[in-house]
Specification:
The longest helix is centred in the first third of the chain and has 28 residues. About 35% of the residues lie in helices and about 20% in strands. It is globular, with a radius of gyration of 22 Å. By secondary structure, it is α/β, with parallel strands linked by helices. It has 14 helices and 16 strands.
């Protein structure tokens, strides 16, 4: 069980400790400020680089195993790292699947002779480094404003021991720098865990954040068929790949029951500025963007629904609010990502329960600090008793 008073009483000491750790990092950066390097030249690495620059710690290079050396982009291929970097260079590993992949990357870098290696997770004591980017709430919590009552209410909704354990692991991780050993489920089972709900061959699926069809293909592999599938994806490049995948990955009889919508999903219709990256990090943004239509599920979906999945880069709660009528009417199973904002950890399960008071709430973690999913399961589909 959670002891919220104990957790909240520990926050002042943790804040003081984080201040000391931030000062230690600043001294370390000052000592090696000419050679601060980020491993990973993807979205996370670029956003971290912006944060470091804003705090007057310019990044000299990016290391990337999959990109060629290109000094115009400040990029060095990993195989050439020794050629351009000294053993004392600070190398910050910044990749999304950091929890699972960091140990092997660190071992590889150490074998190459590098001494000052750290994880992006080590920088979460310095929240200013993440303020400007889309990744802030994923990596760095504002621990001084934790609503203990709501956190506890959400925890009490967790239906089984595995959900309670996962919830506590996440809370412990964000409120301390403990080396948390997360309880992880197989990544390929995301949205379709074996032991929570009963799959239905006649599923009517709404997939918000359908990306390039990866989840659609996973549903097909697991279910073999469905009555209907609607994939909603605002990134035009991803949407085109999704449509292509319908034709190449599904039998004709199933492709005919499958449609797509190129739009973002929220709690009110309209338009929004959208950062289209062509990958899983595409999101509504104020940066360099194009405009996309914004829909609500209440307006866009008129047919029956049995399953709603959402992974929409921080708009999950608003999308739920814009689907309140649809959800109350159809009582579907919900699979909603809860990792984009710190408040998602309590706000999403509490809102799911508000909409669906007779559903059972579960939580499963698939990658550590990201890719954890809340499930709201109708009583007649519950496998865990």
């Amino acid at each position: 069980m959670l002891d919220m008073m104990k957790i909240l009483n520990s926050v002042p000491n943790e804040v003081a400790r984080r201040k000391e750790r931030k000062e230690e990092l600043a001294r370390r950066f000052e000592l090696h400020k000419a050679e601060i390097v980020i491993y990973g030249h993807g979205y996370l690495g670029v956003e971290l680089g912006k944060g470091l620059e804003h705090e007057n710690w310019p990044v000299r290079y990016f290391l990337d195993a999959n990109k060629p050396t290109d000094f115009s982009q400040k990029n060095i291929n990993l195989k050439e790292a020794n050629r351009y970097l000294s053993p004392d260079a600070i190398i910050i590993v910044a990749i999304y699947n950091i929890y699972l992949e960091y140990p092997s990357i660190r071992t590889q870098l150490e074998a190459m002779g590098f001494k000052n290696i750290m994880s992006v997770l080590d920088l979460r004591v310095w929240p200013e480094l993440f303020q400007g980017g889309h990744i802030h709430d994923t990596l760095s919590w504002d621990i001084t404003h934790i609503p203990g009552r709501l956190v506890n209410e959400a925890y009490l909704l967790m239906e089984d021991e595995a959900s309670q354990k996962t919830y506590k692991e996440l809370l412990d991780f964000f409120l301390s720098d403990q080396d948390i050993k997360f309880t992880l489920c197989p990544a390929e089972k995301q949205y379709m865990p074996d032991a929570i709900y009963l799959p239905a061959e006649n599923e009517r699926i709404i997939d918000c954040g359908a990306y390039n069809g990866d989840t659609m293909r996973a549903f097909y592999s697991r279910l073999g068929a469905w009555c209907s599938y609607t994939g909603i994806e605002p990134d035009l490049h991803n949407w085109e790949e999704l449509n292509a995948s319908i034709q190449t990955s599904l039998p004709k009889r199933l492709a005919e029951r499958t449609k797509t919508i190129c739009a973002a999903v929220s709690n009110k219709p309209g338009g929004a500025a959208f950062c289209a990256s062509g990958n899983t990090t595409s999101h509504i943004s104020e940066g360099p963007v194009h405009n996309v239509p914004v829909i609500t599920l209440d307006d866009a979906i008129q047919e029956p629904v049995s399953f709603i999945k959402m992974d929409i880069e921080g708009f999950d709660l608003r999308a739920l609010q814009g689907a309140e009528g649809l959800i109350r009417k159809n009582q579907p199973l919900l699979a909603i990502c809860g990792y984009h904002h710190q408040a998602d950890l309590w706000e999403i399960p509490l809102y799911m329960k508000k909409l669906l008071p007779n559903h059972k709430i579960y939580l499963r973690n698939y990658a550590g600090i990201i890719e954890y999913v809340f499930y709201a399961v109708p009583e007649n589909r519950v496998l865990l008793k």
